[in-house]
RNA sequence: GGAGGGGUGCCGGAGUGGUUAAUCGGAGCAGACUGUAAAUCUGCCGCCUGAAAGGGCUACGCAGGUUCGAAUCCUGCCCCCUCCA
């Protein structure tokens, strides 16, 4: 396994390490390191973008180190100021717990549970007093905080910044102190926060943590960073078919980045891929298929990957009907329109939408294109909308009578 | 305390009395094409009704008002932001 190799771990899919020499030395010293990873319980779903750093954590685990996963139940209430995140609703304790559970289920798909320690921010922030806050805040100046790009751009653009947002990096930094982190992981957009952690640790006499930054993965739209709110994400908990399809839909320009960041396909092979793409001797589609298989194999297994591929080939490349189609029981009384059937089978959200779909020629029944609402639907009919949405209609009246 | 700016459809953002269900961009959906659910091109993109043509209803922070007619004018209320102090 390549991940056993320190050199590989420090090089592959890494954006920046602060301070690289120190980290390298620490790794070779044989000391068991505490690797910090935080998670905001407002967003319990993990996608490929998160997987980049989680894979790194896993690689460190394989080298014998300890992960400390922090459930950021306090800072979640503030919201990371990166981007223009609006004030978010404050989560109830139950929600936080439920989200944490969802998160960990996905987290441990990638990371080894045995070498992970889970800590809640409330363990230390629950006891925080005003005095502690004053102590903490007096260590930093506005100028220091405004050095962060997010803040300064927002400030000069006349957009609001709340005091609590300014507090966010400090609290995150304090987490590092509380758990005595040796290394903290994050995307490049976390650089500022992680540096504050370093600073605070040295102020209180701890050895400053090393900072391990991974590249931000671009979403399936090919332009913005992968995020759930933008809808351009591939979730690690999604079914294999869905992951496969989404990988196939990324723009060709992203192929190499994905291979680099979320797979362990050896560098030499990636070199070949890159050359092939440039000289157009490799069909990008073939690489995307490989990429999809690699990702699904990590999250599920090889068989799931093979099945997802089969499904894709069948439905999208050959335009055939998939094996498994969701069935819906519909009352096929005389005079029921196709529109109603589309709504009943969730293929259309409203009858107006169903109208449009029919008018656009998107609907077919048993492979026959349908052009109006009076088309006959029978029990057992397979209705297809667009390229990929299918439903099988079962006459509910037959079942019940 | 003072001055000013703003709340529009999933998001961003036009629109200051009249074919405005509301320019445009993004997202989404569909069609064509294709080497892919890439790219590109085209269309659609509130709800209900109709086989269709069409018809109806609801919408521009909230509540009233002016008017033949309002997202656009007036009044009150709620909310957000900036600057000065």
Report the average pLDDT across residues.
85
CATH evolutionary superfamily of the largest domain:
HUPs
Give the low-confidence spans: 82-88
Oligomer: single chain
Largest sheet at a glance?
A: 6 strands, mixed
Question: How many beta strands in the DSSP annotation?
Answer: 11
Q: Which secondary-structure class do the elements indicate?
A: alpha/beta
Q: Which strands sit side by side, in order, in the main sheet?
A: 1-6-5-2-3-4
Give the amount of beta strand, in percent.
5-15%
Instruction: Please give the domain count.
Output: 3
Query: Terminal Cα separation, in Å?
Result: 61 Å
**Radius of gyration based on Cα positions:** 25 Å
- The total of helices stands at 18
Secondary-structure element series:
HEHEHEHEHHHHHEHEHHHHHEHHEEEEH
Please identify the top-level CATH class of the largest domain: Alpha Beta
Range of helix content: 40-55%
What is the approximate shape?
globular
CATH topology of the largest domain: Rossmann fold
Describe the structure.
Helix 9 crosses helix 10 (191-203) and helix 11 runs antiparallel to helix 14. The strands form 2 sheets. This protein has a 6-stranded mixed beta sheet, with helices on both faces. Strands 7-11-10-8-9 form a 5-stranded mixed beta sheet. The protein contains 18 helices and 11 strands. It has helices spanning 6-11, 20-29, 48-62, 93-110, 122-125, 130-137, 142-146, 149-156, 163-179, 191-203, 240-248, 255-262, 267-278, 284-299, 302-317, 338-344, 351-359, 396-400; strands spanning 16-18, 34-39, 66-71, 116-120, 183-187, 210-214, 327-330, 363-365, 368-369, 382-385, 389-395. With 401 residues, it is of the alpha/beta class. Helix content is 46%, strand content 12%. It has 3 domains: 3-214, HUPs (Rossmann fold, 3-Layer(aba) Sandwich); 240-320, Orthogonal Bundle (Tyrosyl-Transfer RNA Synthetase), CATH 1.10.240.10; 327-400, Structural Genomics Hypothetical 15.5 Kd Protein In mrcA-pckA Intergenic Region, Chain A, CATH 3.10.290. It binds one RNA strand of 85 nucleotides through residues 158-160, 220-222, 230-232, 244-255, 283-286, 288-289, 312, 315-317, 337, 350-353, 355-357, 359-362, 372-374, 385-388.
């Amino acid at each position: 396994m390549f991940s056993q190799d320190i050199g590989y771990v420090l090089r592959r899919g890494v954006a920046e390490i602060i301070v690289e020499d120190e980290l390298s030395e620490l790794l070779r010293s044989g000391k068991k390191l505490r690797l910090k990873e935080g998670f905001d319980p407002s967003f319990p779903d993990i996608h490929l973008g998160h997987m980049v750093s989680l894979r790194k954590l896993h690689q460190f685990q394989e080298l014998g180190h300890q992960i400390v996963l922090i459930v950021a139940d306090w800072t979640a209430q503030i919201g990371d100021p990166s981007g223009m995140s609006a004030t978010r609703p404050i989560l109830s304790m139950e929600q936080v717990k439920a989200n944490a559970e969802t998160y960990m289920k996905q987290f441990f798909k990638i990371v080894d549970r045995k070498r992970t320690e889970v800590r809640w921010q409330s363990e230390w922030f629950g006891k925080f007093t005003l005095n502690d806050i004053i102590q903490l805040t007096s260590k930093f100046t506005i100028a220091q905080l405004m050095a962060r790009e997010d803040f300064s751009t927002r400030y000069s653009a006349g957009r609001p910044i709340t005091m609590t947002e300014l507090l966010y990096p400090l609290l995150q930094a304090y987490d590092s102190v509380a758990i005595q982190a040796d290394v903290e992981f994050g995307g490049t957009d976390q650089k500022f926060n992680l540096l504050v952690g370093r600073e605070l640790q040295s102020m209180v006499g701890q050895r400053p943590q090393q900072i391990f930054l991974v590249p931000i993965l671009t979403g399936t739209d090919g332009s913005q960073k992968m995020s759930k709110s933008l809808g351009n994400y591939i979730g690690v908990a999604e079914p294999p078919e869905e992951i496969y399809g989404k990988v196939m839909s990324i723009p060709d320009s992203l192929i190499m980045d994905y291979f680099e960041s979320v797979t362990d396909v050896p560098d030499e092979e990636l070199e070949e891929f890159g050359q092939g793409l440039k000289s157009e001797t490799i069909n990008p589609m073939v690489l995307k298929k490989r990429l999809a298989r690699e990702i699904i194999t990590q999250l599920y297994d090889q068989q799931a990957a093979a099945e997802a591929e089969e499904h894709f080939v069948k439905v999208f490349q050959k335009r055939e009907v998939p094996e498994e189609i969701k069935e819906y029981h519909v009352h096929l009384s005389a005079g029921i329109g196709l529109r109603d059937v589309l709504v009943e089978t969730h293929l259309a959200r409203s009858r107006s939408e169903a109208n449009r779909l029919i008018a656009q020629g998107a609907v077919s029944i048993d492979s026959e294109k349908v052009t109006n609402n009076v088309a006959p639907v029978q029990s057992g009919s397979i209705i297809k909308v667009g390229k990929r949405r299918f439903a099988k209609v079962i006459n509910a009246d037959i079942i019940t009578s």
